[in-house]
Amino acid sequence: MTSLGTASAAPGELDTGRLEVGEARDGSTIALPVAVVNGARDGKTLYIQAASDGDELNGVGVVQRVVPQLDPADIAGSILIVGVANYYAFQVAEHRNPIDDTKLNRAYPGDDTGTASERIAAATFDAASRADIALDLHQGSTSQMIEEVRVRCGTRHRLHDECLELAKVFGCGYVLDQKGPDGQLARAAPDDGVPTVDPELGGCVGWDENSIQAGVDGVFNVLQYYDFLDGRVAPRPQTRASGFDQYGAPAGGLVTFEVELGSRVSAGQTLFEVTDVFGFTKETVTADSAGVFWRARRLPHVAAGEYVCSVGTDIDTY
Ligand SMILES: [Zn+2]
Asked: What's the CA-to-centroid distance between 61 and ligand 1, angstroms?
């Protein structure tokens, strides 16, 4: 049997259930929705989780589409899935867990006697640690962002090459290969020997069909490449950024972008203008370095110093 929480599947079976991660303020049990697919044949174990950030719903859309398509009779190995990781944030459609005002993806590997987020991190890290590879499905929150995959362990990590390969196999077309902050699953799990990446499935409010489809394709690419499913996949070359420049607003006002998501920018090229309420230009912001226009705020109005956009830099192809 393969089990995760109350989901338990014999070879050739799929089951769904709940994984306990703590208790709510009223004392009721908090338990994440989970699924287990136990393939008819032996093979590797894949871990997938979605909604680590509670407003990032495209990953839940991916899980919803992928799981009904999985026939355990056709699968070698096991797939462990947490459909909604950040339970508390998901309930209120916010990014961070409102109980402890924490981003779950800064709490790994977690602590099963710690804060609400640390308890979720501990329970989901425990599941991820059982896997041979892991996917932590994210998106650029509610900003606009290209579809890309993040390798967060850092180039000197012993599993860097494996993580980079996994990112290429997932195959969004773009990879950000830059060591992430402490507490990310994609940093902590490689330390535990599990190649892990963050597919970042665009950015939107609610669901974006194109981004969800990119995620579904990515999961099936992984399932085929790592021999969970029959079929061959030849990974396509990916555009990789090794740096990430973030731009803030030098003045308050309204932002007009001069470049489109995914387009190449050169150093000195205008990225955006800040105009006043009456349409007069206050500031023009240019790119410090060449790169790819990666992420942009959704709302046009900004305060001075507020986040506006990001450019992936130090671009190559692998
Ligand atoms: Zn996220």
From this structure: 14
Q: Chunked in runs of 10, what are the mean pLDDT values of the chain (318 residues)?
A: 98 98 96 98 98 98 98 98 98 97 98 98 98 98 97 98 98 98 98 98 97 98 98 95 98 98 98 98 98 97 98 98
Give the distance from CA 22 to its chain's centroid: 24
Peptide bond preceding 235 in cis form (omega within 30 of 0) = no
Summarised one tens digit per residue, pLDDT across range 153-187 is: 999 999 999 999 999 999 999 999 999 999 999 99
Q: How far is the CA of 101 from the centre of ligand 1 (A)?
A: 15
Q: Report CA(136)–ligand 1 centroid distance (Å).
A: 9
State in Å: Cα 183 to ligand 1 middle. 13
